[in-house]
Structures are given as structure tokens and as C-alpha cells.
């Protein structure tokens, strides 16, 4: 049995992933739990149509933070647009998990991912929860990651270790997401654990800051999920309480951001049908908000994404995308680089050798730098190329 560990690396957590038959193959249900009650923070999609599990999480943590015992997650069915029965099923998942853990339903978060509009097979779900809780530990971490995957082609996890106030701190996370990714909170489904001793409110503050430059910076297809849920839980087992507004909090927030960014980049790299990770850096914007909308405009552009897929150094598409955004843009101050090569500056094209630029575009990671020349605002967005395979995946997804 594999002993690769990630989500249970921080002290105080156990987890299990099992196959209960929701999907046609592979693991499809996971439980991640604290050995006792833990601090928690949650963020959910800002889509106006949301799944029953999202509504349950908002009920458990109405302020976005508090204390919980754990989380149950299923893939293969999102439990979205399923009416009153869906709400009852989400509550039943929490209730059954709580019963087996010796906790209260109000201490259990729920997340579901998969096809919209189909009812959960609750007989299979209950069986899966019993199997998962019965095998909680740390030896089956890889099965936990697989259990939350849908169209993902690779497992996504991250581990960051640091020292805060002399104490070793571990942050670990798992995530799923390859399509319907364009968040406005945090994206996909992600669960992070840490042994840091941090209060729920402070944990939420750090998580929101981390998500803004990581999960919120990802766009694969400009479509926002109805099920996006991101959770971080802290066991406090490392000691040395991290107080709000201190250098320790800033260091913890930086480590949490590092973990979230690693998973965000992994999602962009594994976008449906993707062959390249694309990083769009916007600097010199009038404000950080302007930098974000400009970066997202480039990252969301189908014309930019298809040009990258074809290794076509068509900088005009990048300029177009920046110009259509709501950011303040002065063409005479605008500059664009592809792979470090300046292709446009001060309102005019620059002479460049297309071969090295095309070679960069054909590589595994593509970097596009946009300078607006108007201020100190900056933001980095992560996306992927747009291929024919994306169409194939999504045309056949439901059938």
C-alpha cells in the first residue's frame, strides 16, 4: 500500500478515500477529519446558482469561519439544482458522517462535484461514508485525492513546511479542478490542513488573502462552477499561537499562499484538453484591481488561448484583450512580452525573431508579460491553451 502523504501530514488529521459506485470507476468519496474539533475557514462560489452542499457549508459556517470536526466530499454528482431533496441529502451526508465520528452534523462540511441536476445515490453515499470513516488514517492519502477528481487527469496536492516563532509548521492541501473554472472566491474543490495554532477568524483572513492571488487567479474556460468550495482546517497541534496582526500571521499567510498557488497552477496546467500552462503577468496598472481585470481578460481570451495552442506569436490578440478590459489602458504606454521577448511597446510593434518566440509558445509553460505604464498595480493570472480536445471533452461530458 502506498504511504505517500499530503493531506494528513499536519498532525491532528486523518483521512480516507473509497470507491462506493457513484462513478463508473475509481474512488468517489472521501472524508477528511480532525482527531478532535479544529479551526476552519471556508469560501464558496459567488455563482447565483449553487449546489445544496454549498448551502450546507454556509449554514455550518455562516461567517465563513468557526470550528468543525471534518468534511465529507463526493465526486460524480454535484447535487446542484436538485431542490428540497438535494438539501436533505446534503444534510444526510453531514449527519451520517457526524454520527460515525461521534460529532454533531453542524460540525461537518460537505462538498460534491460532478454532473448538475442529478440526485445523489444516497444508498451508495451512506455505504461510502461508512467505509471511509471505518478506514480513516494516513496510509491512503492518494485515494483521498483520487476520490475528489472528475475530469482531472492528474492528482493535485501541495505541501509547504516553515518555522513560525521557532515552531515547525506544515500546511498540506489537495484540490480538484480542470473545467468550469473561473472563480470569484476560491475555485474548484480544495481542502487544506495545517497543524498551526491559529484562531478561526485569523485563519479566514489569511485564507482570503491567499485565495485572491492563487485560486482567484485561475481561469480555464471563463465558466464559474456552481459547486466551488475551498476549506482550510487548523488543528493547533504545532503550538505557538499565531496572533492576528503579527509577523507570525504574515509568515503563515505567505506559506498558505504558497500552497494555494501551487495547486492553482496545477489546475491551470491540467485544464481540460490543455497542453500548456499560461502565466499572464500584468504590471504598471493604475491599481491592483485594474491589473487583475486586464490579466483575466488576456487569460480568458479564446483567441489568445488558441494562438498559444498553435504556437502563433500573434501579439495583436493580447493587445486586443487588454484593451477590451475595464482596466485603464493608454496604448502609447502599453508593452507586451512573450517569453521575455518584447513584441509590442509604446503603441507600436517591435521587430523580433519569431522563431524563439514561437519556440517559447510551444513549450510546457508560456509567460506573457503586459506592462501598462500607469502605476504600481500588478496581478498574475493562470490559464492554459485552448485545444480541440477541450471541445471533445465537454461535448461528450454528459453522455
Q: What topology emerges from the helices and strands here?
A:
Layout: E1 13-18, E2 29-44, H1 52-60, E3 65-77, H2 83-101, E4 108-115, H3 122-134, H4 141-147, E5 156-164, E6 167-176, E7 189-194, H5 200-212, E8 229-234, H6 247-269, E9 277-285, H7 288-300, H8 302-309, H9 315-324, E10 335-338, E11 341-345, E12 348-349, H10 354-361, E13 365-371, E14 377-384, H11 388-395
Parallel strand pairs: 3-4, 7-8, 9-13
Antiparallel strand pairs: 1-2, 2-3, 2-8, 5-6, 6-7, 9-14, 10-11, 10-13, 11-12
Helix pairs in contact: 1-2, 2-3, 5-6, 7-9
Report the CATH superfamily of the largest domain: L-amino peptidase D-ALA esterase/amidase
The beta-strand count equals: 14
Oligomer state equals single chain
Low-confidence stretches: none
Task: Give the helix proportion (percent range).
Answer: 25-40%
Proportion in β-strands? 25-35%
Helical run tally: 11
Q: Give the CA-CA distance, first to last residue.
A: 34 Å
Task: Specify Rg, calculated over alpha carbons.
Answer: 21 Å
Amino acid at each position: 500500500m502506498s504511504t505517500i502523504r499530503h493531506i494528513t501530514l499536519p498532525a491532528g488529521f486523518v483521512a480516507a478515500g473509497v470507491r462506493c459506485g457513484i462513478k463508473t470507476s475509481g474512488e468517489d468519496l472521501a472524508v477528511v477529519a480532525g482527531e478532535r474539533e479544529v479551526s476552519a475557514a471556508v469560501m464558496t462560489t459567488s455563482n447565483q446558482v449553487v449546489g445544496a452542499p454549498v448551502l450546507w457549508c454556509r449554514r455550518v459556517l455562516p461567517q465563513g469561519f468557526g470550528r468543525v470536526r471534518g468534511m465529507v466530499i463526493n465526486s460524480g454528482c454535484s447535487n446542484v439544482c436538485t431542490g428540497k431533496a438535494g438539501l436533505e441529502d446534503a444534510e444526510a451526508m453531514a449527519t451520517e458522517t457526524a454520527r460515525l465520528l461521534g460529532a454533531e452534523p453542524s460540525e461537518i462540511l460537505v462538498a460534491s462535484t460532478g454532473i448538475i441536476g442529478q440526485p445523489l445515490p444516497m444508498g451508495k453515499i451512506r455505504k461510502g461514508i461508512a467505509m471511509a470513516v471505518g478506514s480513516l488514517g494516513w496510509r491512503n492519502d492518494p485515494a483521498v485525492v483520487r476520490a475528489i477528481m472528475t475530469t482531472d487527469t492528474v492528482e493535485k496536492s501541495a505541501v509547504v513546511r516553515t518555522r513560525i516563532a521557532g515552531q515547525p509548521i506544515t500546511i498540506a492541501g489537495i484540490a480538484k479542478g480542470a473545467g468550469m473554472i473561473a472563480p470569484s472566491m476560491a475555485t474548484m474543490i480544495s481542502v487544506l490542513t495545517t497543524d498551526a495554532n491559529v484562531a478561526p477568524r485569523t485563519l479566514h483572513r489569511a485564507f482570503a488573502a491567499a485565495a485572491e492571488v492563487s485560486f482567484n487567479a485561475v481561469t480555464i474556460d471563463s465558466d464559474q462552477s456552481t459547486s466551488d468550495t475551498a476549506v482550510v482546517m487548523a488543528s493547533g497541534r504545532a503550538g505557538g499561537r499565531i496572533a492576528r496582526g503579527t509577523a507570525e500571521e504574515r509568515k503563515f499567510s505567505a506559506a498558505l499562499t504558497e500552497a494555494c498557488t501551487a495547486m492553482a497552477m496545477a489546475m491551470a496546467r491540467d485544464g481540460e484538453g490543455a497542453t500548456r500552462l499560461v502565466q499572464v503577468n500584468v504590471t504598471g496598472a493604475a491599481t491592483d484591481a485594474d491589473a487583475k481585470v486586464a490579466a483575466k481578460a488576456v487569460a480568458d481570451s479564446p483567441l489568445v488561448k488558441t494562438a498559444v495552442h498553435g504556437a502563433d506569436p500573434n501579439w495583436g490578440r493580447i493587445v486586443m484583450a487588454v484593451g477590451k478590459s475595464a482596466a485603464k489602458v493608454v496604448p502609447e504606454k502599453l508593452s507586451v512580452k512573450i517569453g521575455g521577448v518584447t513584441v509590442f511597446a509604446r503603441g507600436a510593434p517591435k521587430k523580433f525573431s519569431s522563431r524563439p518566440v514561437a519556440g517559447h509558445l510551444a513549450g510546457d509553460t508560456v509567460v506573457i508579460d503586459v506592462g501598462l505604464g500607469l502605476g504600481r498595480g500588478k496581478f498574475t493570472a493562470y490559464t492554459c491553451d485552448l485545444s480541440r480536445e477541450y471541445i471533445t471533452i465537454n461535448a461528450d461530458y454528459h453522455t
